[in-house]
Design goal:
Length: about 325
Amino acid sequence: MNFKRYSNGDEKDILDAFKIVFERELSIDYWKWRYVDNPNGDTTLINIAWDENKLAAHYALSPVTIFVNGIKYNSALSMSTFTHPDYLKRGLFTKLAENLYLENMDSVDVIFGVPNDNSVNGFIKKLGFKLIKEIPMLESKILNKNYKVTNKCVFIYRFEKEFDELFFLVSNKYNIITSRDSKYLNWRFIDNPENKYQVIAYIDKGRILGYAVIKIYDKDLELIGDIVDIIAINELVLRELINSCFSLFQSKSVLKVNTWFFNNEFMSVLKDFNFKKSGLYFYFIVKNNSGKLKNDIFDFNNWYLTMSDIDIF
Protein backbone atom coordinates (compact mmCIF):
# COMPACT_ATOMS: atom_id res chain seq x y z
CA MET A 1 0.00 0.00 0.00
CA ASN A 2 1.46 3.35 -1.07
CA PHE A 3 0.39 6.81 0.10
CA LYS A 4 0.74 9.47 -2.57
CA ARG A 5 -0.42 13.04 -3.08
CA TYR A 6 -2.82 13.76 -5.90
CA SER A 7 -1.31 13.72 -9.38
CA ASN A 8 -2.92 15.13 -12.50
CA GLY A 9 -5.42 12.58 -13.79
CA ASP A 10 -6.12 10.92 -10.43
CA GLU A 11 -9.54 12.57 -10.37
CA LYS A 12 -10.98 9.80 -12.58
CA ASP A 13 -10.08 7.15 -9.99
CA ILE A 14 -11.26 9.44 -7.17
CA LEU A 15 -14.68 9.96 -8.76
CA ASP A 16 -15.05 6.27 -9.65
CA ALA A 17 -14.27 5.22 -6.07
CA PHE A 18 -16.55 7.93 -4.67
CA LYS A 19 -19.44 6.50 -6.69
CA ILE A 20 -18.78 2.97 -5.41
CA VAL A 21 -18.61 4.08 -1.76
CA PHE A 22 -21.49 6.58 -1.67
CA GLU A 23 -23.63 5.15 -4.49
CA ARG A 24 -23.96 8.56 -6.09
CA GLU A 25 -21.90 10.55 -8.53
CA LEU A 26 -19.66 13.49 -7.80
CA SER A 27 -19.39 15.59 -10.95
CA ILE A 28 -16.02 16.44 -12.43
CA ASP A 29 -17.14 20.08 -12.58
CA TYR A 30 -17.75 20.17 -8.84
CA TRP A 31 -14.50 18.38 -8.06
CA LYS A 32 -12.51 20.78 -10.24
CA TRP A 33 -14.29 23.78 -8.73
CA ARG A 34 -13.64 22.65 -5.15
CA TYR A 35 -10.02 21.52 -5.47
CA VAL A 36 -8.49 23.17 -8.55
CA ASP A 37 -10.35 26.47 -8.96
CA ASN A 38 -10.37 27.23 -5.22
CA PRO A 39 -8.65 30.66 -4.87
CA ASN A 40 -6.40 29.06 -2.25
CA GLY A 41 -6.09 25.96 -4.42
CA ASP A 42 -3.56 23.35 -3.39
CA THR A 43 -4.17 19.86 -4.72
CA THR A 44 -1.21 18.55 -2.66
CA LEU A 45 -3.70 18.47 0.22
CA ILE A 46 -5.33 15.40 -1.34
CA ASN A 47 -3.86 12.16 -0.01
CA ILE A 48 -4.55 8.78 -1.62
CA ALA A 49 -3.79 5.20 -0.61
CA TRP A 50 -3.01 3.06 -3.64
CA ASP A 51 -2.89 -0.73 -3.85
CA GLU A 52 -0.80 -0.86 -7.01
CA ASN A 53 -3.15 0.87 -9.49
CA LYS A 54 -6.31 0.59 -7.39
CA LEU A 55 -7.50 3.48 -5.21
CA ALA A 56 -8.00 2.04 -1.73
CA ALA A 57 -8.74 5.17 0.32
CA HIS A 58 -8.91 8.93 -0.03
CA TYR A 59 -8.74 11.95 2.25
CA ALA A 60 -8.65 15.61 1.27
CA LEU A 61 -8.38 19.06 2.78
CA SER A 62 -9.67 22.20 1.09
CA PRO A 63 -7.48 25.25 1.86
CA VAL A 64 -9.09 28.26 3.52
CA THR A 65 -7.63 31.61 4.57
CA ILE A 66 -8.54 32.45 8.14
CA PHE A 67 -8.08 35.53 10.31
CA VAL A 68 -7.43 35.09 14.02
CA ASN A 69 -7.42 38.35 16.00
CA GLY A 70 -6.79 40.17 12.74
CA ILE A 71 -3.79 38.05 11.75
CA LYS A 72 -3.91 35.97 8.58
CA TYR A 73 -3.29 32.22 8.85
CA ASN A 74 -3.49 29.24 6.52
CA SER A 75 -6.32 26.92 7.36
CA ALA A 76 -8.13 24.00 5.78
CA LEU A 77 -11.58 22.47 5.76
CA SER A 78 -11.60 18.73 6.34
CA MET A 79 -13.31 17.28 3.30
CA SER A 80 -14.34 13.91 1.91
CA THR A 81 -12.91 10.78 3.41
CA PHE A 82 -13.74 7.37 2.02
CA THR A 83 -12.37 3.86 1.82
CA HIS A 84 -13.11 1.38 -0.96
CA PRO A 85 -15.24 -1.53 0.36
CA ASP A 86 -12.41 -3.96 -0.36
CA TYR A 87 -10.10 -2.16 2.10
CA LEU A 88 -12.24 -1.47 5.13
CA LYS A 89 -11.02 -1.90 8.74
CA ARG A 90 -7.35 -1.40 7.89
CA GLY A 91 -7.00 2.04 9.46
CA LEU A 92 -6.30 3.66 6.11
CA PHE A 93 -8.20 6.87 6.81
CA THR A 94 -6.31 7.48 10.06
CA LYS A 95 -2.97 6.82 8.35
CA LEU A 96 -3.81 9.09 5.42
CA ALA A 97 -4.90 11.91 7.74
CA GLU A 98 -1.92 11.61 10.10
CA ASN A 99 0.46 11.67 7.16
CA LEU A 100 -1.25 14.69 5.59
CA TYR A 101 -1.35 16.69 8.84
CA LEU A 102 2.26 15.94 9.73
CA GLU A 103 3.68 16.83 6.33
CA ASN A 104 1.73 20.13 6.32
CA MET A 105 2.43 21.12 9.92
CA ASP A 106 4.38 24.18 8.77
CA SER A 107 1.92 25.25 6.06
CA VAL A 108 -1.55 24.52 7.51
CA ASP A 109 -2.12 26.13 10.90
CA VAL A 110 -5.73 25.22 11.66
CA ILE A 111 -7.95 22.42 10.38
CA PHE A 112 -11.68 22.42 11.02
CA GLY A 113 -14.66 20.45 9.85
CA VAL A 114 -18.12 19.03 10.43
CA PRO A 115 -17.81 15.23 10.35
CA ASN A 116 -20.75 12.86 10.36
CA ASP A 117 -21.80 10.56 13.19
CA ASN A 118 -19.65 7.72 11.85
CA SER A 119 -16.36 9.61 11.78
CA VAL A 120 -16.51 12.26 14.51
CA ASN A 121 -15.09 9.98 17.22
CA GLY A 122 -12.19 8.98 15.00
CA PHE A 123 -11.22 12.61 14.45
CA ILE A 124 -11.33 13.31 18.18
CA LYS A 125 -9.77 10.14 19.62
CA LYS A 126 -7.18 9.38 16.93
CA LEU A 127 -6.36 12.64 15.12
CA GLY A 128 -6.13 15.31 17.81
CA PHE A 129 -9.27 17.29 17.04
CA LYS A 130 -11.44 18.88 19.70
CA LEU A 131 -15.22 18.99 19.53
CA ILE A 132 -15.96 22.61 20.40
CA LYS A 133 -19.65 22.84 19.52
CA GLU A 134 -22.65 20.85 18.44
CA ILE A 135 -23.99 23.51 16.09
CA PRO A 136 -27.79 23.78 16.14
CA MET A 137 -29.65 24.38 12.91
CA LEU A 138 -31.87 27.43 13.40
CA GLU A 139 -35.29 27.32 11.77
CA SER A 140 -38.16 29.72 11.19
CA LYS A 141 -41.58 29.05 9.74
CA ILE A 142 -42.98 32.58 10.02
CA LEU A 143 -43.51 33.53 6.39
CA ASN A 144 -46.94 35.09 6.51
CA LYS A 145 -46.09 38.70 7.31
CA ASN A 146 -45.92 41.83 5.20
CA TYR A 147 -42.18 42.23 4.83
CA LYS A 148 -41.35 45.76 3.74
CA VAL A 149 -38.11 45.86 1.78
CA THR A 150 -35.85 48.90 1.79
CA ASN A 151 -34.50 50.11 -1.54
CA LYS A 152 -31.04 49.84 -0.03
CA CYS A 153 -31.24 46.06 -0.36
CA VAL A 154 -30.57 45.06 -3.96
CA PHE A 155 -29.73 41.89 -5.84
CA ILE A 156 -26.18 41.61 -7.13
CA TYR A 157 -24.76 39.09 -9.56
CA ARG A 158 -21.05 39.34 -8.85
CA PHE A 159 -18.96 40.48 -5.91
CA GLU A 160 -16.89 43.49 -6.92
CA LYS A 161 -13.79 44.85 -5.19
CA GLU A 162 -15.94 46.99 -2.87
CA PHE A 163 -16.72 43.83 -0.92
CA ASP A 164 -13.05 43.66 0.08
CA GLU A 165 -13.56 46.84 2.09
CA LEU A 166 -16.58 45.33 3.83
CA PHE A 167 -14.59 42.26 4.79
CA PHE A 168 -11.76 44.42 6.11
CA LEU A 169 -14.25 46.12 8.42
CA VAL A 170 -15.79 42.92 9.76
CA SER A 171 -12.56 40.91 9.94
CA ASN A 172 -11.39 43.22 12.71
CA LYS A 173 -14.68 42.83 14.52
CA TYR A 174 -14.57 39.07 15.02
CA ASN A 175 -11.84 37.08 16.75
CA ILE A 176 -11.90 34.26 14.20
CA ILE A 177 -13.39 34.48 10.71
CA THR A 178 -12.64 32.84 7.39
CA SER A 179 -11.81 35.08 4.45
CA ARG A 180 -14.72 36.63 2.62
CA ASP A 181 -12.96 38.83 0.10
CA SER A 182 -14.46 39.28 -3.37
CA LYS A 183 -12.29 36.61 -4.96
CA TYR A 184 -13.41 34.00 -2.45
CA LEU A 185 -17.08 35.04 -2.54
CA ASN A 186 -17.25 34.82 -6.34
CA TRP A 187 -15.69 31.37 -6.25
CA ARG A 188 -17.85 30.11 -3.37
CA PHE A 189 -21.22 31.36 -4.60
CA ILE A 190 -21.23 32.77 -8.14
CA ASP A 191 -19.02 30.18 -9.81
CA ASN A 192 -20.36 27.18 -7.88
CA PRO A 193 -21.34 24.58 -10.52
CA GLU A 194 -23.80 22.67 -8.32
CA ASN A 195 -25.79 25.15 -6.23
CA LYS A 196 -27.65 28.21 -7.39
CA TYR A 197 -27.43 31.09 -4.92
CA GLN A 198 -28.95 34.56 -4.86
CA VAL A 199 -27.16 37.49 -3.27
CA ILE A 200 -28.73 40.55 -1.65
CA ALA A 201 -26.44 43.45 -0.79
CA TYR A 202 -27.18 46.38 1.50
CA ILE A 203 -25.81 49.50 -0.19
CA ASP A 204 -26.04 52.96 1.40
CA LYS A 205 -24.67 56.00 -0.44
CA GLY A 206 -22.46 53.80 -2.55
CA ARG A 207 -21.01 51.86 0.39
CA ILE A 208 -21.63 48.15 0.85
CA LEU A 209 -22.57 47.57 4.48
CA GLY A 210 -23.64 43.94 4.32
CA TYR A 211 -24.89 41.08 2.21
CA ALA A 212 -26.88 37.86 2.46
CA VAL A 213 -26.56 34.73 0.33
CA ILE A 214 -29.62 32.52 0.01
CA LYS A 215 -30.56 29.24 -1.60
CA ILE A 216 -34.00 27.79 -2.31
CA TYR A 217 -34.44 24.07 -2.84
CA ASP A 218 -37.09 21.38 -2.88
CA LYS A 219 -37.22 18.77 -0.13
CA ASP A 220 -40.05 16.25 0.12
CA LEU A 221 -42.19 18.40 -2.20
CA GLU A 222 -41.72 21.48 0.03
CA LEU A 223 -39.64 24.54 -0.76
CA ILE A 224 -36.95 25.28 1.82
CA GLY A 225 -34.89 28.46 2.07
CA ASP A 226 -31.35 28.63 3.45
CA ILE A 227 -29.60 31.82 4.50
CA VAL A 228 -26.20 30.38 3.69
CA ASP A 229 -24.05 33.40 4.53
CA ILE A 230 -24.72 36.81 6.01
CA ILE A 231 -22.47 39.72 6.95
CA ALA A 232 -23.67 43.02 8.39
CA ILE A 233 -21.83 45.89 10.03
CA ASN A 234 -24.64 46.61 12.49
CA GLU A 235 -28.02 45.43 13.73
CA LEU A 236 -30.01 47.66 11.39
CA VAL A 237 -28.30 46.26 8.30
CA LEU A 238 -28.75 42.70 9.54
CA ARG A 239 -32.45 43.24 10.18
CA GLU A 240 -33.01 44.75 6.73
CA LEU A 241 -31.13 41.92 5.03
CA ILE A 242 -33.10 39.20 6.80
CA ASN A 243 -36.30 41.10 6.06
CA SER A 244 -35.40 41.11 2.35
CA CYS A 245 -34.59 37.39 2.47
CA PHE A 246 -37.95 36.61 4.06
CA SER A 247 -39.76 38.78 1.54
CA LEU A 248 -38.19 36.81 -1.31
CA PHE A 249 -38.84 33.47 0.39
CA GLN A 250 -42.48 34.41 0.90
CA SER A 251 -42.87 35.39 -2.77
CA LYS A 252 -41.53 31.96 -3.77
CA SER A 253 -43.87 30.07 -1.38
CA VAL A 254 -41.01 28.86 0.79
CA LEU A 255 -42.37 27.09 3.89
CA LYS A 256 -39.30 27.05 6.14
CA VAL A 257 -36.04 28.99 6.51
CA ASN A 258 -32.80 27.53 7.91
CA THR A 259 -29.61 29.25 8.97
CA TRP A 260 -26.60 29.20 11.29
CA PHE A 261 -25.91 32.36 13.26
CA PHE A 262 -23.95 32.74 16.47
CA ASN A 263 -23.20 36.43 16.91
CA ASN A 264 -24.45 37.09 20.44
CA GLU A 265 -24.57 40.82 19.75
CA PHE A 266 -27.28 40.36 17.12
CA MET A 267 -29.20 37.31 18.37
CA SER A 268 -32.20 39.45 19.27
CA VAL A 269 -32.72 40.09 15.56
CA LEU A 270 -33.08 36.39 14.84
CA LYS A 271 -35.56 36.04 17.70
CA ASP A 272 -37.69 38.73 16.06
CA PHE A 273 -37.87 36.48 12.99
CA ASN A 274 -38.82 33.56 15.23
CA PHE A 275 -35.70 31.48 14.60
CA LYS A 276 -35.53 28.50 16.93
CA LYS A 277 -33.43 25.36 17.23
CA SER A 278 -34.76 22.74 14.82
CA GLY A 279 -33.34 19.73 16.66
CA LEU A 280 -30.71 19.09 13.96
CA TYR A 281 -27.08 19.46 15.09
CA PHE A 282 -23.66 19.45 13.42
CA TYR A 283 -20.37 18.52 15.11
CA PHE A 284 -17.84 21.35 14.74
CA ILE A 285 -14.29 20.15 15.32
CA VAL A 286 -10.97 22.04 15.32
CA LYS A 287 -7.30 20.98 15.24
CA ASN A 288 -4.35 23.26 16.02
CA ASN A 289 -2.14 21.68 13.37
CA SER A 290 0.93 23.93 13.50
CA GLY A 291 0.81 24.67 17.21
CA LYS A 292 1.20 28.38 16.46
CA LEU A 293 -2.21 29.40 17.77
CA LYS A 294 -3.47 29.70 21.30
CA ASN A 295 -6.37 27.86 22.85
CA ASP A 296 -8.81 30.62 21.90
CA ILE A 297 -9.40 28.72 18.64
CA PHE A 298 -11.14 26.09 20.79
CA ASP A 299 -13.63 28.62 22.18
CA PHE A 300 -16.64 28.55 19.88
CA ASN A 301 -17.67 32.04 21.00
CA ASN A 302 -14.60 33.38 19.18
CA TRP A 303 -15.74 32.04 15.79
CA TYR A 304 -17.96 33.77 13.25
CA LEU A 305 -19.49 30.84 11.36
CA THR A 306 -22.24 30.48 8.81
CA MET A 307 -23.42 27.58 6.66
CA SER A 308 -21.04 28.71 3.92
CA ASP A 309 -17.98 27.79 5.97
CA ILE A 310 -18.51 24.09 5.28
CA ASP A 311 -19.17 22.22 2.08
CA ILE A 312 -22.64 20.82 2.80
CA PHE A 313 -24.69 23.91 1.95
